[in-house]
Each structure stands twice: as structure tokens, then as C-alpha cells.
Design goal:
There is one protein chain. By secondary structure, this protein is of the alpha+beta class. The chain has helices spanning 3-12, 32-45, 88-100, 128-132, 160-169, 184-194, 199-211, 222-225, 257-268, 276-283, 351-364, and strands spanning 50-57, 60-67, 80-82, 232-233, 236-237, 254-256, 287-288, 294-295, 300-303, 309-316, 321-327, 332-338. The longest helix has 14 residues, at 32-45. The N and C termini lie far apart (42 Å).
Length: 366
């Protein structure tokens, strides 16, 4: 893949095309472990060196992995992958916590420290809810990010000084609150607005810690490094992404299937979570895009048959692809993590997305 094309695709994709409707249920429904195993095998057949899948259904949890993980063993629920943009839902949860605590408002204008100019267009400023729903008008990336970037670690060189300069060069494509346009820059700025230059600590304290997500962090501890899968691009090992500035967008976050199943269980059953009010707020529609796609805070909300809602987010870095989806009405959730970069095409979704939505479709089919 050409260097510039990889940089553009790997850093700018919204992540995934939703499959229409539900997949048909099998005539003879297998037990849950067999069903999950079948989908994990399909992920390997699609070209991933390893895959792990976590499921919640009927009050049961099940995690299974296949392929070559750390040390040659098959991956499991504790194997560490880069999470990618699913982490945007953690940043949105941190925003929701602040709103529920009364320390900010969804309609509060984006405010950054002196020296970090906030772009404007039209009669009103960018608000925090605009950032969380990708309706700010901001571009996907800062205009000065890609110049001089390492194609295999494109955010690592970017500093706060670069961000200050980049914001001065940024032009909004649309007026805030008017159109949906997926933006890593927007969610990265949301993190900086909530906790300037301390985003990773903020996410651990406000979201990951209270929910018990012990391996969901940008700081790769030694024990996590020993359990980490190696990312791949076109069959070759590639380095993990690092990002000191826009990490709230998920560009350098790590996690495990066990953590993501725990996170999805809190989404399905917020009443038992210490973050109940914030989680409920993230799942409410706050913006409707052209074509009818609704946006919660961080989450994408798509209709399912029977009036149900599919709540989802996808993610990826240069060597990893992920997808998480759930239906509260059905009590079912799926997360899949693979250690290869992949991209959707004009006609086909990424394999990890198709498999995640397909498995959830089987679980929720009548």
C-alpha cells in the first residue's frame, strides 16, 4: 500500500459499514461456545493471524480466541489488543459523567487553553455535544498531522505545539451542529477540553477504573506487554500506534476482550453500574445524521426490526481492527478484536465488522 494512502485510510476511517437487518438464525442453533468458535474461525479465514471474541447473551458471558497469540498460544480474554476508536465511547462516557455531576453542559462551548484557537463558522461555536456526535464541522485530522508522519506510527510525532499550530490552520467544513462528519480531531479535542494534557489519567479515573477495566489504558504495563498480540498490516508485523495528544479518539488505547465484555455488560445493564446515569446519557440520541443514522454520545444507533436498536462502534489502528455492538432490548452484545489492519471498500465492510454484526444478528434473531 502506498505510504500516503495508508496514512489517510488508517487515520481517517469512521470504521465500518452497518449490515442491513439481522442475519438469519440457523435452523439448529448451536450452543453459545460453538457459535462463537465458528465466527472466530471465520476471522482467521479472512486473514487475521489471531482473533478473540466476547459475547453476552441470555445472561451468559463467553470469550474465545483462535490463532497465534503471545508466546504461540491461542489468544484469550486477557490477550491485549489495540482498541482503536471504540475508545471514543469511553471519552464520551467521561463527558457524560461531567454533565451528570453538573460540572459542564452538553451545549457548553469548546474551550481550550490560551494559544489553542477554536475554529469558528456560522453563528454559534462548537459545543461539547457537537464533538461527541461528530457534528462539529471539524475535519477528520488536523491539517498538519500527516506532514512528516511515520506511516506505521502516524500520531507519535504530534505535539501540543503542533496542535496549537494546526488549529490555527483548521477550517470548518460545515457550521457546528449541522452535519455528521466523523472526526478523530473532534474527539481528541473533547478529551483535551475535559482534562487538558492529562487525558489518559482522566479516562482511567473517570471511566476505566470505576468500571473495573484494568487493562483498558494507553500505558502498556509490563504484564500487559507480555500478553499483547502483535499487530499486522498485509501479513507483516507493524508497531503499535502511540499518540500523546489526540488519544481521547482511541488512537493509542489498549484493551482486552474481558474488559470489553465487562464494558458491554455495563451498557446492557447500566442499573448495576456505578456510572448508571452517564451510561444512560451516552445511549440517548443527541443528533440525527442525513440518512437517519442517530448518534448518541460516542455511540452510533441504528434501527433493528421490531423497534429495537443496535448500538455500535468500530475501531482500528495500523495493525489492529475491532468492533463492538449490542442490543439492550435483546440483552445481547458482541465484541471482536483481531490483530490485522483492514479497511472497508465501496461494496464490502471490514471482515471484523461483518462478523460482529452477523454474530449479533444470530443472537438477536427471533
Amino acid at each position: 500500500m502506498q505510504r500516503r494512502k495508508f496514512l489517510t485510510v488508517a487515520t481517517a476511517t469512521a470504521g465500518g459499514t452497518l449490515l442491513a437487518g439481522n442475519a438469519a438464525a440457523a435452523d439448529d442453533r448451536p450452543d453459545l461456545p460453538a457459535l462463537v468458535r465458528r465466527y472466530v474461525t471465520r476471522a482467521l479465514e479472512a486473514g487475521s493471524p489471531s482473533a478473540v471474541c466476547g459475547v453476552i447473551h441470555g445472561g451468559r458471558r463467553h470469550v474465545a480466541g483462535a490463532g497465534e497469540g503471545p508466546g504461540g498460544a491461542a489468544p484469550d480474554g486477557g490477550t491485549v489488543y489495540q482498541l482503536g476508536s471504540i475508545a471514543k465511547t469511553l471519552t464520551a462516557t467521561a463527558l457524560a459523567r461531567a454533565v451528570c455531576a453538573g460540572t459542564t453542559r452538553l451545549d457548553a462551548p469548546l474551550t481550550l487553553p490560551t494559544g489553542f484557537p477554536v475554529p469558528h463558522r456560522g453563528p454559534r461555536p462548537i459545543t461539547l455535544v457537537d464533538l461527541a456526535t461528530h457534528s462539529s464541522g471539524l475535519p477528520s485530522l488536523p491539517p498538519n498531522l500527516l506532514a512528516g508522519a511515520d506511516p506505521y506510527d502516524p500520531y507519535a510525532h504530534y505535539t501540543l505545539d503542533d496542535l496549537s499550530s494546526g488549529l490555527g490552520e483548521t477550517t470548518l467544513a460545515t457550521e457546528p451542529g449541522s452535519q455528521y462528519a466523523y472526526s478523530n480531531l473532534g474527539v481528541g479535542l473533547l478529551g483535551q477540553a475535559l482534562a487538558f494534557d492529562a487525558v489518559d489519567t482522566m479516562l482511567r479515573r473517570r471511566v476505566a477504573g470505576p468500571l473495573g477495566l484494568k487493562d483498558t489504558t494507553t500505558a502498556l504495563r509490563p504484564d500487559m506487554a507480555a500478553r499483547k498480540a502483535v499487530g499486522h498490516l498485509a501479513g507483516e508485523p507493524v508497531p503499535d500506534w502511540r499518540d500523546p495528544v489526540l488519544s481521547a479518539a482511541g488512537t493509542s488505547m489498549y484493551s482486552t476482550a474481558d474488559d470489553m465484555v465487562r464494558f458491554l455488560d455495563a451498557q446492557l445493564h447500566p442499573g448495576g453500574s456505578p456510572l448508571r446515569a452517564a451510561i444512560e446519557l451516552t445511549q440517548r440520541p443527541h443528533f440525527t445524521a442525513e440518512g437517519g443514522l442517530r448518534l448518541g454520545l460516542g455511540w452510533h444507533l441504528s434501527p433493528l426490526p421490531g423497534g429495537r436498536t443496535l448500538t455500535w462502534h468500530t475501531g482500528g489502528t495500523g495493525g489492529f481492527s475491532t468492533c463492538a455492538a449490542f442490543s439492550r432490548e435483546s440483552g445481547s452484545a458482541v465484541v471482536m478484536m483481531v490483530n490485522t489492519f483492514s479497511e472497508e471498500t465501496a461494496t464490502d465492510p471490514r471482515p471484523v465488522d461483518a462478523l460482529t454484526f452477523g454474530l449479533l444478528g444470530e443472537l438477536t434473531a427471533a
